[in-house]
Amino acid sequence: MKKEFSKIYAYIYRNYIFAIRNVFTFFDLLFWPVIGIISIGMLSTFLKLDTTLISFLLTGTITSGVLQITQLEVSYGILYEIWSKSIKQLFVTPTKLYHYIIGSWVIGVIRGIIVFLLLSIISHYLFGFYLPKINIVLVSLLGIFLTGLILGMFVNFFILLYGQRVDIIAWSVSILTMLICGIYYPVTTLPKWLIKIAEFIPLTYFLEYFRKGYGFEETFKYGLVKGYILCMIYAIIFSYSIELAYKYTKKTGSIIRLSE
Amino acid sequence: MNFETIIQLKNISKTYTTFLGFKKRKVLAVDKVSLEVYKKEIFTLLGPNGSGKTTLLNIIMGQILPDNGEVFIFGTKLETTIPEQIKRKMNMCSGNPNFPWCMTVKELLKFYGLLYGITGKKLKQQVEKLISIFELEKFADVRFDELSTGTKQRLALAKSLINDPEILLLDEPTLGLDPEVSIKIRQFIKKLKQEQNITIILTTHYMKEAEELSDRIAFINNGKILTVGTLQEIFNTTKSTSLEEVFLKLAHL
To answer: If you count Cβ atoms within 10 Å of the first and of the last residue's Cβ in chain A, which end, N or C, has fewer?
Structure first.
């Protein structure tokens, strides 16, 4: 058990060093989320929206910031090694895929909490935003972190299969997900076929639950349960898919080419 | 010489498929290779670039799956993944090594140590020991991307010993290094052999390096093993006086 923790800790340690030494991680953490919250807040003020509607919009921006930072960190778990051309060195060690996924996710959650607190504080002082009850916040946040984990695993799967040429997925997947899950609008405003897709994305339910705290009605029954069940199903599917992708890279020899 | 077999390859073949648009190209990298590596020896795969040395090494390390054949390490047949208890006893060092660019020498050794489940005081001691053995003290707090090629190679060797491996795979460890650093790296390898309970498989295309370091040599070309034996055995069977001569004779058979 101690050895398992040490392997997970190794990735926490590596991701932490990357986070403190690279300028782009600062931009991921502070610059883009803060720009997002200020622009949406200013737009809400200009449109003279009431506090509840402002909260509706700002929960979208906060969720987007937290989701993206968590997902990016899980994606960085493999991207750091691809960019450094050192992935081969990693798989020589007795490490398993879940070690780097969990290790990277832990740093993702820490960074997500920082983004959440920062954006909540800025929104409160600039736009009068307030958080709903603590239990609603915690349950929603956990769901957002889990969605970040799943999206990160989704990115890992494609990176393992196709390498650096598809790394753009890492920066687009959470934005696309937010678009479908109702970032600044209820999902009911989406075309019917997109609502169907939204039903299969756990974030839809966590975002609705978050907004329920401001008195907005949920579109789907048992949303929270569905959200967590979907997270579990996707975590199993993507774990298996990543293992298969890794096996495929060993079969084609691409794991070596990714290190050259 | 102890003749206990530690690695055994039986009839290993590997073909790579590449695509250029819709055009498919198949390259036979390893062709029905069978060989044995004995405990505590330095076994060298000697051959030109593209002969299949690195593919063979990566098959042993479980990084590439062969199309056919069987690999046995410590008597255990490898399937699609190497069992953890075997991986813990192995390590690898490549020429032109790459590591996460913004981590320092000390941090990198710590990171890889943790991946082998080494923690606390033992990890600290191991990192310090390797830094001292490979004369990396001056560079302990220098980022990987700021190191010279020779220092990167010494770090790669240090990393490959972080878990005190019983089997060490060295893939062209002196590739692209100037003569002075190459000599130093070869001295490290010799010292390793003398002082530690370790089996080394080395790939190289430098005849001199193979001659200087190896207990046994396997000539490989176009994915095929041409001959295996000690230097003297190879000279006797091929009626040659130098490895260059051996290669020229065998490669044109």
So the answer is: N
What region, left, alpha or beta, does residue A217 occupy, with left being phi > 0 and alpha being psi -120 to 50 degrees? beta
Which residue reads 């740093």 in tokens? A107
Please, are residues A93 and B115 in contact by the beta-carbon 8 Å criterion? Answer: yes
In chain B, what residues touch A160 (CB-CB under 8 Å)? none
Q: What is the ipTM, given to two decimal places?
A: 0.89
Contacts of B55 in chain A (CB under 8 A): 253
- The position carrying tokens 């997947």 is A173
Distance from CA of B246 to the nearest CA of A (A): 30
Nearest 10 degrees: Cα torsion A123, A127, A132, A136: -40
Strands B42-46 and B90-94: unpaired
A251 CA: distance to closest CA in chain B (Å): 5
Q: What residue in B sits closest to A80 (Cα-Cα)?
A: B100
Strands B68-73 and B76-77: antiparallel
pLDDT, tens only, A55-102 = 999 999 999 999 999 999 999 889 989 998 998 888 899 998 899 999
* pTM for this predicted structure: 0.90
